[in-house]
Amino acid sequence: MCGAESNEDLYEKQPPISDEDLLDYTNDPQNSALSCSDNNYRVDFLRSWRKNPLNEQARQVFIQNFFAAYNGGSYRQTIVPKELLTEDIIGSILDRHVVYRRQCWLAEHVPLSTAEKYKSQQRNSKSARQATVCTQH
C-alpha cells in the first residue's frame, strides 16, 4: 500500500513527517493536510508504530483494506484458514512487518553511530546464539 518497490524507494514514497504536521493531525485529524486512507496510505517511519496516532490509523486502514481485498478475491491462490483471518492476527503480522520496514527505513536515512552499531551487532549475536540453543533442545 505504500507504493514502494524497494527499501530505497520507501524513503521517497514515505518521507519523514514534520513535528508540526503530526501535531496538526493529532489535534484535528479530520481537517489535517496529513491523512491516511487506502488511496493515500501514509506511515510515519520516524516515530513509533504503535504509539503514533497516524500510524494507528494506517494500521486500521491496512487491516480493513486487506479484508476487503481478501473477500473480493484478490488472494484466490492463497488459502488462509478462517481462524487466521482475524483483526488481531492480521494486525500482529503487519506489526512485525512494519518493525522490519522501519528498521530498513531508518538504516537508510538515520545512520547508527559506531556505538549503536556495536550494540546492535551484540544483540544480533546474542539472539542468534539463543536461537541455536533453543532449536537444539
List keywords for this structure.
59% helix; 5 helices; globular; 137 residues; single chain
What does this structure look like?
- This protein is mainly α and 137 residues long.
- The protein contains five helices and no strands.
- It starts with 6 loop residues before the first helix and ends with a helix.
- The model has no long low-confidence stretch (mean pLDDT 87).
Entry summary:
This protein is 59% helix and 0% strand.
Alpha carbon gyration radius: 18 Å
- How many strand segments? 0
Category by helix and strand content: mainly alpha
Proportion of residues in helical segments: 55-70%
- Strand count, sense and closure of the main sheet? none
Q: What is the molecular shape?
A: globular
Distance between the termini: 40 Å
Average per-residue pLDDT, rounded, comes to 87
Strand content: under 5%
Set down the secondary structure blueprint:
Elements: H1 7-13, H2 19-27, H3 53-71, H4 87-109, H5 114-136
Helix pairs in contact: 1-4, 3-4
